[in-house]
Design brief:
The protein is mostly helical. It is 70% helix and 4% strand. The protein has a four-stranded antiparallel beta sheet with strand order 1-2-3-4. Helix 1 runs antiparallel to helix 4. About 1% of the residues have low confidence.
């Protein structure tokens, strides 16, 4: 066991609440088994829970528990209890590990000495007691013999939610067990393929995908386990196709149907994975089916996606663009996708034309995809077309007057060495916005933010401008605090008023984070009184505050640390 497992590590991993509750379960830990780098046990809580703790995980303390909280991926109280038990038994762990090895060796030796008939009798005894084990073995046997009539009902049994569902729905706590059972279906399908019955494996894989899709709506798949089963079924189907080599045209028709119908969303079949099975004939048939479907419904998501996928794989960028262009979005996002496709194909001039068209044709530049504006602006800058970059950012800012668009305009205008000309016009637009009866509440704070953000352009006179703007059009508490910090040296009385106003609501709250903010304000208040020469007033203020809030020990301690 490495040094990862400590009480401090358990506390940090589980959190204070689970750690404290885990301490109450120390007497509930039974059946501890120690292996190479792991410990398992049963912890008796509301039910019996199986717990596994990893001792040599290089990432730190880890483990798993099948309680509801543990199934959500949390480090639960049962894991804490096992961890504390391991720490308490640290000295005996080597002996327990050796005992586990001896038990396994003894079992192996005993099983090796049994005859075939004795092993069969033992296995029958287990299958009589464990119904799920029997069903899995029966399926493997039927698959190995190619008995499709026997395989089909057993696959249906494995994908049946009935044994796991309450009121027709598999809850999260039971979903993992269902997924574990469903995963055995892929083993049976692979067994059919390996036994030379790949055509039957294809049939069963398709049926299993359908059954899984029907079950999906009745399972809480928050962990994505059904997706893993779906991926495994897709892999099993592909392997079977590679072995059986079905008719290319028939396979192409099935793949197109899968892509266009999207009947489950669980088995994510990629038609291009089958390219080696389809060959030229199959790929030609698949492209034909995709084009026909797209022509029937050019705006359909599945049709467009399949067309783009096949066209891109075939290097037909013009077809990819045609698919995009058939259903353009009003905000220019489609034009951006086309521009990016053309860029990747080494056609930058056409890419820029499409991007410019997206901006030009947008009914509202304020609602245009900002990524399109960014793309076009960056291209202008790379091409040394600074005037066009500034014009684009000016138009975007005029349509969408936010701090971000102001900053973007400023960056481009500085690169073009015209910010001193553009800044007054941009601020004028924000003042205009702030003056509107319906827009003042929004434009006012943006104006103040813009003035505060222009740090490289500001001096004391500009700080005064920002203060006056905040007073005229309004500002939030964050902005007032920033303004007070900036003008404190030249307007201590005004700054003092801000600090006192912001202090009042904090006095009625508790918590260390609140106290830190409050003490920071008190330090600023002290500085204002020093600048004003009214230290006696500050002393009286702090004395009254201590008298009213002396029971807040952490606050008093912080004040003392800052000499207050």
């Amino acid at each position: 066991m490495n040094g990862n497992l400590t009480q401090a590590a358990l506390l940090a991993r589980a959190g204070a609440r689970s750690f404290e509750r885990g301490q109450g379960y120390l007497n509930a830990v039974t059946g501890v088994e120690v292996g190479d780098g792991w410990v398992t046990a049963t912890v008796h809580g509301t039910e019996r829970y199986e717990v596994r703790l990893n001792l040599d995980d290089p990432r730190g303390v880890s483990g798993a528990c099948d309680c509801p909280y543990g199934l959500e991926g949390n480090f639960c109280k049962h894991l804490v209890a096992l961890g504390l038990t391991v720490l308490a038994q640290r000295d005996s762990l080597p002996r327990q590990r050796e005992a586990t090895r001896q038990r396994v060796q003894t079992l192996d030796t005993w099983l090796s000495g049994l005859s075939k008939d004795e092993l069969l009798a033992l296995l029958h005894e287990q299958t009589d007691q464990d119904r799920q084990l029997r069903r899995r073995l029966e399926l493997r046997a039927a698959s190995a013999h190619g008995d499709l009539a026997a395989v089909r009902p057993r696959i249906r049994d494995l994908l049946d939610i009935g044994p796991f569902a309450q009121y027709g729905y598999v809850e999260y706590a039971d979903a993992r067990a269902y997924v574990t059972q469903a995963m055995h279906v892929t083993s049976a399908i692979d067994a059919l393929t390996e036994s030379g019955r790949a055509d039957q494996a294809i049939t069963m894989a398709v049926e299993a995908m359908r059954l899984l899709a029907e079950a999906a709506d009745s399972v809480d798949d928050s962990d994505g386990g059904l997706g893993q089963v779906g991926e495994a079924l897709a892999d099993a189907h592909l392997n079977a196709c590679r072995a059986a080599r079905p008719a290319p045209e028939e396979l192409a028709h099935w793949l197109a149907q899968q892509a266009l119908d999207d009947f489950d969303g669980i088995t994510d079949i990629d038609p291009l994975d089958y390219e080696d099975v389809l060959g030229d004939r199959g790929m030609a048939a698949l492209r034909k089916l995709a084009i026909e479907a797209w022509r029937r419904r050019r705006t359909g998501w599945a049709e467009r996606s399949l067309m783009q996928q096949l066209a891109r794989a075939g290097g037909d960028i013009d077809l990819v663009i045609a698919v995009h262009a058939a259903d353009p979005t009003a905000n220019g996002h489609t034009h951006l996708l086309i521009a990016q496709e053309l860029d990747a194909a080494g056609r930058p001039e056409e890419a820029v034309e499409w991007a410019e068209r997206g901006v030009r044709d947008a009914p509202d530049l304020g609602a245009v995809d900002t990524a399109l504006v960014d793309y076009l602006s960056e291209h202008y800058l790379r091409s040394a077309r600074l005037a066009q970059a500034v014009a684009l950012r000016c138009a975007h800012f005029a349509a969408r007057r936010s701090l971000l668009t102001y900053q973007q305009l400023r960056a481009v205008a500085r690169a073009a060495e015209c910010w001193q000309d553009e800044r007054p016009q941009a601020l004028a637009l924000l003042r205009e916005e702030a003056a509107r009866p319906t827009g003042g509440g929004y434009g006012g704070p943006v104006l103040v933010d813009a003035l505060l953000d222009d740090q490289d352009d500001q001096d004391d006179q500009d700080d005064e401008v920002a203060w006056e703007a905040a007073r005229d059009v309004g500002a939030d508490d964050r902005q007032w605090l920033t303004l007070a910090d900036r003008v404190r040296a030249i307007r201590p009385a005004d700054a003092l008023g801000v600090y006192l106003r912001l202090t009042e609501p904090l006095l009625g709250q508790t918590g260390n984070a609140i106290y830190e903010r409050l003490v920071g304000l008190l330090v600023n208040i002290r500085d204002c009184h020093r600048l004003l020469g009214t230290q006696e007033d500050f002393t009286a203020y702090v004395t009254a505050l201590r008298g009213a809030h002396g029971r807040k020990r952490n606050l008093m301690r912080l004040m003392e640390d800052h000499g207050l």
